[in-house]
Amino acid sequence: MTSSPSKNAPHLPPSSAGPHLGSPRSLGRLRQQKSAHQLSSNYSALNGPSLISQQRQQQRITGITQNTPIPPPPVPAIPSPQKHIRARSNSDAVVPHPVNVGPSLKRIQVPKKPVDPKDELRSLIRHGPRGDMPDALQSLRHWILVDGLEADNDGMSDLRIYVWLILLNSPPLPTDIYLNLIRRGPSPAYAKIRNDTHRTLMTNVLFQRRVRENSIIRLLNAVAWKLYDAKSDRLTDSGRITNASNDLGSPELQHASPAIKHAKGASTATNEGSEAGGSEPGIYVQGMNVLCAPFLYTCRTEPQAFIAFYHFITRECPGYIRGAMDGVHKGVALVERCLTVADSRLSAYLTSKGVSAQIYAFASVLTMSACTPPLPEVLLLWDFLFAYGSHLNILCICSQLMMMREELLADPSPGKLLRSFPPLQAKEIIALTVNLVRKIPSDLYEELVHHAE
């Protein structure tokens, strides 16, 4: 049995590689190292390791390779000690005369950064006007006329829908109200709506890429139910029962099924479509699908488009959605009268060629010029119409004719050119329309304002 290494290992004496700690020679070296360490401690952070650390590194390297000469480690330069001098106090400093003060001592006036119009408009929409409401609305209208709303190449602007809602005085609509209208199913005008929706701006790539036909169907069907309820309320108020109405219409109609409602009022509702006449507003007329298209393209959600479109057709142009569309026919007649005032020669030439406004202006009057591409220019034109009144669309049509004046006068058959208007140029049309307003007599302008009522 072998013994363990710990028991048989010889006792090693203290190493003689270095001097004993108790000798005077070792104490002297210790004091030297301590002194060197104190001198270099203040510069270790800037000039690398301390002197004692460098000596220890040199000893370790020397113990490994004795034959390799090692250069001495670099010693950081120690600056000469400076005498402490008391700094001058402020009490005995010489104060310069204000006249002799240099530019560096004068207070520099930093110019104020100009306010970004977009930020100012965002603040107006988010926090409301700071002063009077009429003044704020006037500033907003002037803003649209002079600067315009900022938008991308597709006509998209994150502020446009909120500006439209303000100008149309449309309050926020709870989403549940719109969903309740959708849940009621097909309206009495559903078949006529489906006949028109697939033709809505069918050649416009921007619109077809962003808006689906299902959205158009839902929106028009919800508007039809809303107009249907309003019609039923008027019939009830003038007859036997008087009911209080809310956003969904009559309380009786809110809880009734679509079949009961259809049986109750189909005799009046379906007879006032795009073909029939009458002075009562219909629930759907041809052309409403094109009128709602810019709202769906601009709005963030369908409820936003619904409330904006509903307030637009019921407040700005209710005469356009009547069964006989008498407001549209009045507008077409006003196009010829206003063109006679604006450009009598062009008006007389078109009349002599048998080209009437009923041929070339009917679609533009009915759709507020939304039938003429491109869509981004339509949105710019609608900004102007919502700001200063949709009745100015009549003068905008006259402005488009005046922009084609030379071509029309030079063509022996101007009716061919007017089968479709050239692409919209909103800024040029708006500029001509503003100048044209001054030429219109007061009585004629009064008819313009009230023709769509």
Automatic annotation (TrEMBL):
A Gene Ontology BP annotation from the UniProt entry: negative regulation of septation initiation signaling
PROSITE patterns, per database record: TBC_RABGAP (PS50086)
Location of the region described as Disordered in the Swiss-Prot/TrEMBL record: 1-47
Domain Rab-GAP TBC: from-to ranges: 154-389
Matching InterPro entries: Rab-GAP-TBC_dom, Rab-GAP_TBC_sf
Pfam families (UniProt xref): RabGAP-TBC (PF00566)
Polar residues composition-biased segments: 33-47
Cellular component terms (Gene Ontology): mitotic spindle pole body
Protein's UniProt name: Rab-GAP TBC domain-containing protein
UniProt organism field: Letharia columbiana
